[in-house]
Specification:
This protein is α+β, with helices and mostly antiparallel strands. It has 1 helix and 10 strands. A hairpin with a 5-residue loop joins strand 4 and strand 5.
């Protein structure tokens, strides 16, 4: 074959190889761009809770009277959403049975809360840590009843360990301030929750979290 006829063939062959390789490269770039965004998902958290009263304020006006709000424990449940790799939010309900020093037969503290969390994941393990701030409404009374209620604010820290991509176990420590707004009387004739600033609790939660689409 004449040398001048070989050149167009070589040029056509090179162009064909270039066109054939381009879709694969573009596909690789598309695949990497699709994997980059974080996939948001829903959360369901259940837990066992315990807490102690650090400062009872107007609920226990002085050391000479019995305090109707003591330490206790209960359960907590929350639903929420992980919106990004570093943020999530939860809306939950807590109920705990409290030591009321016989001023209530069975005292319960109920809370409906909202919490926003900032999450830091460990790239070297299945663990992550978080800090959160929240608020809500708290009610206190006899056997699921409401004797007094008011707002609550909280700060929390915690961490979790992933047993699988869908299940994790964790611990949460929470410091919260409650402000009961409705005064009430107890069996000893003492007026409670009339004034003051806040009742402060320190709580711990052992949690299990289930994650889905």
């Amino acid at each position: 074959m004449h040398p001048e006829k070989k050149r167009p063939c070589a040029a056509l062959l090179g162009a064909a190889l270039c066109l054939a390789s381009t879709p694969a490269g573009a596909q690789d770039m598309l695949s990497s761009s699709q994997e980059a965004p974080y996939r948001a998902h829903r959360l369901l958290t259940v837990g066992l809770a315990t807490s102690a009263i650090l400062h009872a304020d107007a609920v226990c006006p002085n050391d000479q009277t019995l305090c109707p709000l003591g330490g206790g424990g209960g359960i907590a449940v929350a639903i929420g959403r992980r919106t990004s790799a570093s943020q999530e939010w939860l809306i939950g309900y807590d109920i705990s049975v409290r030591n009321a020093r016989n001023l209530f037969a069975s005292a319960t503290l109920q809370q409906i809360r909202f919490e926003h969390r900032w999450v830091a994941a460990s790239p070297a393990s299945n663990a992550e840590a978080f800090v959160g701030v929240g608020g809500g409404v708290v009610a206190y009374g006899e056997r699921f009843g409401v004797t007094t209620l008011g707002p609550a604010v909280s700060v929390s820290v915690g961490g979790s360990y992933y047993l699988s991509p869908f299940v994790s176990l964790g611990f949460v420590g929470r410091l919260e301030a409650l402000r009961f707004l409705v005064p009430f009387d107890t069996g000893d004739g003492v007026r409670r929750s009339d004034g003051g600033i806040a009742t402060v609790l320190l709580g711990g939660y052992f949690t299990g979290t289930f994650r889905g689409p």
